[in-house]
Write a structure and sequence with these properties.
The protein is of the alpha/beta class and 360 residues long. It has helices at residues 13-22, 38-48, 56-63, 77-86, 101-114, 128-138, 158-163, 177-180, 183-193, 264-268, 290-301, 307-325, 333-352, and strands spanning 4-9, 28-34, 51-53, 67-70, 90-93, 118-120, 145-153, 197-205, 217-224, 229-235, 243-250, 255-262, 278-282, 356-357. The protein contains 13 helices and 14 strands.
Amino acid sequence: MEKIRVGVVGSGKAACMHADGIVNIKNASLVAVHSRSKERGEAFAGKYGAKAYQDIADMVAAEKLDMVTVCSPHPNHLEAVEAAMSEGSHVLVEKPLASTLEDCDAMIAASKKYGKKLGMVSQRRILPASQRIRKAIDAGKIGSPALGIAQLLGWRGEDYYKGDPWRGSWEHEGGGVLVNQAPHQIDLLQWYMGGEMESLYGVWNNINHPYIEVDDTAVAIIKFKGGGIANLILSNSQKPGLYGKVHIHGSNGASVGVQTDGGAMFIAGISKVQEPPKTDLWTVPGEESLVAQWEKEDVDLFHSEDPIEYFIRAQNQDFVDAIINDRPPMVDGEEGRKTVEIFTAIYRSMETGKEIKWPL
């Protein structure tokens, strides 16, 4: 079969990680990249033997792209999606899907209009430890999800925010930790809790980043339509950074959890990690002894590979497979919108001082 022809929009760190992943997956070929900077685009393209473009629609049309992976700043996602889909390409978008619900809805509408697949990158869903939780919930091993706790206690310093001019502003980033670092934990939490939110009360603060406009810390309480409740504690103000975790406690008393992040990534803000993502909580009756076995498997899996790179590659592979097999991607546009709903509700709750009710 012919390989899926892929283009990448963006030339920053995320775009590089996706490009590295795409050149190492099955049935796909990276043939083009887009950057608004001609110099950066050509330098980026040269690493992969691809061709550089400054116009997305021209890139898709000229290269007959089947798939575009979007890694541009959040407010630019909609423009990229509409341009790519209008020329016939399916689109995978880095998290968050967008910084506003209006942009999410426009992307979903474009997907329906052009008959193209829309996916969002949320690679922590692919973690073996994350999949164990979803399978346990689906199998009824914890009863129904009754209480969810999502925590992100990390660090981002001045070098991080000043390294890219779009970071740290409402106009160019659309938010802070809620929009950029926390979507992974938010996505897992809503996925485990059933994805049907009823109401939310939230607040945010900027604790120790005076050089940015946006949030570096947020706390929220969510009620779900299924009867469950959840707590979010999300921050990038802990130095050194600590961890990211999502724990789900069931109606039968059993609990399951995943540590999504830990180690050097949170201490130094770099991509390499010291600790593999792992099952850090499991009290399903009769299965408690499996935790040690799973932890060994998780450690062995990442003995020689960065988990971020591994799962970004895996999510691009999932999207390629979705195109080939004409099935939905792991995280589609509607699922991606739910994360944006939650952080939008936190911002609205902070602004109004009120509980925010769904639908949004």
